[in-house]
Fold:
Amino acid sequence: MHWPLLFLVVVISCFGFLMLYSVAEGDFEKWARPQMERFFGGFILMIIISFVHIDFWRFCSPFIFLVGIVLLIVVLFFGDYGGGAKRWLEVGPLRFQPSELNKVGLVMALAVYYDWLTPAKVSNIFWVFIPVVMILVPTALVIPQPDLGTGTLIAFIGLTIMFAAGVNYLYFLGGLLILPGLLALIFYSRGTSWQLVNDYQFGRIDTFLNPGNDPLGDGYQITQSKIALGSGGLEGRGFMQGSQSQLDFLPYKHTDFIFTTIAEEFGFFGSVGLLLMYSVIITFCIISAMTNKNKFGSLLTIGLATIFFTYFFVNISAVTGMAPVTGVPLPLISYGGSAMLVVLGTFGLIQSAHIHRLLKKD
Amino acid sequence: MEKISFRKNLLDRNLGRRAVLLGVGQLVLVGFLIRQMRELQLQESEKYQLLAEENRIDIRILPPVRGVIFDEKGATLAGNLENYRLRIIPEKAKNPSKVLEDISTLITLTDERKSEILTEIEKKKSYSPVTIIENISWNDFIRITVNLPSLPGIVPEVAFKRFYAYKHFFAHIVGYVGEISRSDLKVISTGNPILQIPDFHIGKVGVEKGLDPLLRGSVGLSRHEVNAVGRIIRKLKEDPSLSGKDIHLTVDSKLQEFAMHRIEGFSAAVVVINLETEGISCLASSPSFDPNLFIEGMSQDDWDILRNSENQPLANKAVSGNYPPGSTFKMVVAIAAIEAGLIKTEELINCSGFLEVGERRFHCWNSFGHGDMDLIGGIRESCDVYYYNLALRVGIKRISDTARKFGIGVLFPLPLSGVSKGLMPSKNWKLAQVKEKWVPGDTLNSGIGQGFVLSTPLQIAVMTARLATGLEIKPTLVKAIDGKPINRNKKRALKIQDSTFSLVRKAMFNVVNDKKGTAYKSRVVDEKKILAGKTGTSQIRFITESERKEGIRKNEDLPRSQRDHALFTGFAPFNKPKYAISVVVEHGGAGSSVAAPIARDIILFAISGSIPKITAYPIDQRDETDAILKRIKKAIHL
Structure:
């Protein structure tokens, strides 16, 4: 067991409970308590996953990947709308976004693939083509939900594993050259009959580029969020003293925008402190991956750490006005059951990989 | 075997290198985030802190209570009436239409009004109150208050509204208040937060306007912390409002009411000045209007009637009516001539009914002529020819200068609306305004208070006040502010010989008390209240020579708008003057028969402080006078 990693996860989560208590204006029952219960459940799940043998996870990986794909297809036809997009799946009392499962499934499947693939073949064009397809299938299924953001993230996470697995730099270089052309094509399609992304997605990009234009519309979130962040200053306004969040100026203050409350109430110290804790988690994972003798475990750790990274990076860059708002939660802190479960689950896998790092595949 | 193992190790090392690259890449990106946080939280923090405060704090203005306007003796002319009203907070009512139904079982509320309220509720935010009904009775108010538990969201409130108890009697003095209009904002200082209070009332006319800055008071401010939807979370700070200052006027409400009754039915104005205090005791203008109409709101029709009425009820004729002073001006010409040494008291001038200057004939009102006239006789019998001669001798320059000394053509700074300067013409004035040269005929006309000369009833009263006292009386309307009396400067003596004054006063005595005097019928027989004065009949149309030949049409035969104005000005008691008065009755006819009796009644009231005793009147007039006084006594609520 990677104890320091476990410790950090617990510390960040506890910090999250504290913030949920604060944004509820001192109401423990509202968000903090349910979140703690979910954490407790997720924590047990994490521990169980940790002690399950890594070979079992390797065995499960293709199935998890395939289940994810199937669920995506189901969502496309039977999913519920939420926030303007069809991305939720409801099974009994459970309501979750399969795209979260897709990220994990893709990482696991690619890790299995490269574990299986003879290293010499990694950069062979045929053996590069296969993982590209594996990445493109979930990406292509997520984008029409419509969820451009998650689609992009899935692709990014997949490419990260390909990179870690040693695929020749030239492929990435080529990809980088194609990307601007693709972006240009998307913007060029705007307003035409073959428009590549939806109007609302363009709207979000517009808002991101110029939030002041429409202060009470989409831009309102960003403007209020920046006011909260900025007014925190160096030391913050004190626990439960942030006027922006306490007085409801912040939208989604307990979910996607919770970082703004942290920054408002604990200032630069608080926000950077959290970023450093996240960075230490990433660093722990990278070191664990490097010391892992098991290639599957190693790639799995890198991939899952990347998922974790994309969570907090995308979330924080959105609330600080550096990127468009995509509805990604702040990991371990934002209120929400499925996100908490997924994140703790991935840490369980990372721990399992770490625990079994000395075992080579026979 | 060896080879493969080697290659595998190589690739494992490769994986480690790639992992490091990825880790470093991610940490670099975190660096970007930290840089952004530094910019927002450290470099631009102040700006965002300010924005957060703006978000958070809602400043509300607390309206002050308007100052009360009293008369000289403390009767309330403009007060604040409690306005019981009901408001509804939709958010608390949950189902406003049901609450409205319930409330209409307790008070009358038309279906039309109900739907009006419901539309307003939809327009506003759910926490902002909407007025259901205003000015409900105390009983209704209590009934609602008792039933509050079953009327969720209903807020009974007590607000203040202006009330003018004396209605039309003081409309022109006190004026009225109203909501701030766009044109008001151009004139008054816009920075004052008081003016941002919704439906805040400011003075529009009269003392309400003239002393508005004193009456207004100052606003209080409350600072509330509000949340994103504007709901109040808690009160942070409150500076209470300061009530406006109370004003005591110099006006005597009883005298004013009497005067208003006395000139009822006329288009007329009366000014009474207290010679000791210089205060205006009475400033009546008829017809008048009820200022409460402006508070309660009036229909477009009512407003049109008020605005377009021939007799201009909205105008304060006492200070803004410009009338030729007519013969009341003759004292000014007499003084100018005596002071210049251009006439001796006993010098006789013959009046043959007209005076020819150049090719024009200037007529006396008495077409048969007065015969030989001396100065006193000229005033007593109001001989025009005598004053034509005097005017020619003295010249317009001296006449103008003397008139200004007595207040004609002088603007008196009173806190009233439309105070006029009148007009005392000069040669330069005519050249500049009429673009014609001054001719001797102009001087002649000026000599009898006609032609270009215009004066307000106030100016005529001031003239008489100065004649009666020999002092530079400056009329005032404000006695005290917040109970503190206004300090008056010592009255200065006019630079005119005493002998001149006594001569003119004697002439004015004769006007009323000599059998030949034009106002002999309006004399007072009570020795202690003897009236002295001067009549005036100011002509407002030009009588052609041909008309004279055919016989001048009598006033009664003319259309009303062409009839003469009747004027009288006087002071009493003669040996110890206490009051000066001027009366102007528009198109009233002769000053002697119309204006003088009114002036006598009012000045007697002023001296005695109540309805004058009938013993003050000559025996043969008592029945007639008694009827008038009884009628007023009945109408008045003293």
